[in-house]
Amino acid sequence: MQIKPLDKEFLTRALDSTESADPAWNEKLAVLQRKKVEKPAIYVGTGTCGLGAGAAFTLEAVKKFVKDHNIDAEIVEVGCVGLCALEPIVDVQLPGKTRIAFQKMTEDKVEKVLSAIFKGEVLQENVMGQYRVEGQEAWKDTLYIDEHPFFASQTRWVLANCGIINPGRLEEYIAHGGYVALKKVLTGMKPIEVCEEVEKSGLRGRGGGGFPTGKKWKFAHGTEDTHRYLVCNADEGDPGAFMDRAVIEGDPHRLLEGMAIAAYAIGAQKAYVYIRAEYPLAIQRLRYAIAEAKANNLLGENILGSGFSLEFVIKMGAGAFVCGEETALIHSIEGKRGMPRPRPPFPAVKGLFQHPTIINNVESLANVPGILSKGANWFNAVGTGGSKGTKVFALSGKVSRTGLVEVAMGTTLRHVIFEIGGGIAKGKAYKAVQIGGPSGGCIPESHVDIEIDYESLKTVGAMMGSGGLVVMDEDNCMVDVAKFFMDFIQRESCGKCTPCREGTRRMLEILHRITRGAKSENEQQTLERFQSIIHLEKLAEVIRDTSLCGLGQTAPNPVLSTLRWFRHEYEAHVYDRKCPAKACTDLIKYEIDPAKCKGCSLCSKGCPAQAISGTIKSPFVIDADKCVGCGACADTCRFDAIKKV
After folding, report:
1. Shortest CA distance to 61 belongs to which of 100, 123, 110?
2. Which residues of 584-608 are buried (b: 16+ CB within 10 A; e: fewer)?
3. Where are the alpha helices (DSSP H) in 118-250?
4. CB-based burial, 276-293: b 16+ in 10 Å, e otherwise
5. pLDDT value at position 414?
6. What is the spatial distance between Cα 250 and Cα 259, in angstroms, rounded to a whole number?
């Protein structure tokens, strides 16, 4: 991949962190920082979430508009700004004016919205907000982005550039202070000093366990073996998690700079990015960013003339959940089957190819440049006593505003869900939020005011995890939720140890048993059904206490947390054969309200089990013994006469 190097004078001057009084230089930086433009610029969010919402078609419509109207404009593809619920997002920046963002910009809206903005008019129904930039004229009567309820209370450090800069243009990252920290480290700090600064900051691993990052680096730095490796875990196997993908797609150089600093600190000369193959766009942008950095001596041999060299390797994983565990990930990189091994020795002492290896996830490493450029005290001034800095969450599920959220540690779950996320969608009642993926737990309404930090979440049977937040409402059955996560865990078990391999299967069988209808049971199975909850808890405790790796030990968490907070739902399934949320198909019954039924017979004609009978123009009835609970009758009824019971 051939990359034209940046102007050396520009690079040297930009990496000098001192402020400049040169107006021409500051003008150049302002343009590269996207604070102002010399000609119209149109930004299209083409991260994976945007593309999923139709951004590729929007992009083509924007190109067509510019061509048809003979407008000399720059069209820029950017990453995800975070508010996935309003994708596709298109920003427009005219010379002398602030940058303004438009939401839900499907291809059919492009002509209308862009025609108006180029005439100096803003169609408010499409506006998401404008960016606050000193010296640029603001659009009248238009909300600022930092006033938008989704963004107003966020602390965007890791996500600062996502959706703002062009991820395929190195000079834009540098103009925002990029690689200043790397130069500072390579030219003025010893490796142990870097480890100590990161330890002082209080940064803890953002991938799940929350181990102090600087302390972890010191273990590898202090080993006698000088052949060391750095690994970035970008596998991101949790259902509902997409933070790492978005950071790489929107700001890949932040990750590369953090990895280069970490490698220098531990004495590694080779770094791996272990990323799932299902992230093709992230891989593409990462490869290009590596090539850009190498072309400008920011990676590769003798970086910035410091004598430190670093080789980068991208290793694509096959999406196995177990490879999120450190030792399984190491085996996968080595070309072996992804299976964990007993610890100690820990990877920091004996890891990849039997050499000391440090494994951090994307978010952990993306925090490093800020810490080294602004200092440990800047970072640890935010957060709680034991949890410093910010945390990025992927907010999804039954919430009004889904997307990427970055908040200071100590922010309450209620604030994230109801203020930033806009509360439960469609006016439904909040029931729980699953935090930390399959290894985490469900937090009920009674604990939604809990502060987000590593220790507090453990008190309610949950964990920080990688940062997935899946919100559930009154229509979610918690037994069904537990069954979903247990099915995922059971399929993803590597099978090496018996407790995880067999125990999760038995737990899943029990969950299937208690959500099964009476028609498919014999007397023995009915007896087993009543013993289910006792066996479920015992199995969970055995798996937790005896599994080989951390993933196996946390596998029962979805069941244990739902049992802890929603035992009444389990009991209703077992003893009453009812699903309170009316979500488990085998336990659902349908009834026809005779006062609403018009006797049209559509429900009878659409019933696959021939369970509905009646006379035309008279109320029909459902035979409960024949009904299979498919809901076809309720979908067919035009008079809302058929209800779940």
Report:
1. 110
2. bebbbebebeeeebeebbbbbeebe
3. 170-175, 180-188, 191-201, 213-221, 243-250
4. bebbebbbebbebbbbbb
5. 97
6. 17
CB atoms within 10 A of CB 136: 19
Structure tokens at 65: 């508009």
Backbone conformation region of residue 601, classed left if phi is above 0, alpha if psi is from -120 to 50, else beta: left
Cβ 286 vs Cβ 275: under 8 Å = yes
Cα–Cα distance, 79 to 46 (Å, whole number): 6
pLDDT score at 524: 76
N- to C-terminal Cα separation, the chain: 63
Structure tokens at 171: 């000079």
- The helix (H) or strand (E) run that includes residue 468 is strand 468-473
- Whether the link from the prior residue into 345 is cis, omega within 30° of 0, is yes
Surface-to-core class of residue 245, CB atoms within 10 Å of its CB (0-12 exposed, 13-18 middle, 19+ buried): buried
> Residue 522 has what pLDDT?
74
Q: Which helix (H) or strand (E) holds 613?
A: strand 612-613
pLDDT for 616: 94
- pLDDT at position 530 is 77
Q: How distant is the alpha carbon of residue 543 from its chain centre?
A: 27
Total Cβ atoms within 10 A of residue 372: 24
Question: In 267-375, which ranges are continuous DSSP H helix?
Answer: 280-295, 326-333, 362-366, 368-374
Measured distance CA(500)–CA(507) in Å, rounded: 10
- Rounded to whole angstroms, how far apart are CA atoms 544 and 566? 20
Q: What is the pLDDT of residue 141?
A: 92
Residue 1 confidence (pLDDT): 67
How many Cα atoms occupy the beta-carbon half-sphere of 336 within 13 Å? 13
Instruction: Give the dihedral of Cα atoms 90, 253, 282, 157; nearest 10 deg.
Output: -60
Backbone angles phi, psi at 249, to 5 degrees: -70, -35
* Amino acid letter, residue 96: G
Tell me the pTM.
Answer: 0.93
User: Which regions in the chain score pLDDT beneath 70?
Assistant: 1, 520
| Six-digit token string for 423 | 């509360």
- 136: which 2 tokens? 């640029």
**Which pLDDT belongs to residue 122?**
95
Nearest CA among 366, 373, 382, 322 for reference residue 155: 382
* HSE, side-chain direction, 13 A CA sphere, residue 382: 18
pLDDT at 364: 97
Contacts of 214 (CB under 8 A, 6+ apart): 195, 196, 197, 198, 199, 200, 201, 203
Q: Which helix (H) or strand (E) holds 543?
A: helix 532-546
Angle between helices 243-250 and 280-295 (to 10 degrees): 40
CA distance 455 to 481: 24
229 in Cβ contact with 272 (< 8 Å): yes
The predicted structure's pLDDT at residue 624? 86
Contact 407, 421 (CB under 8 A): no
Distance of CA 127 to the CA centre of its chain: 25
Adjacent-strand bridge partners of 412: 451
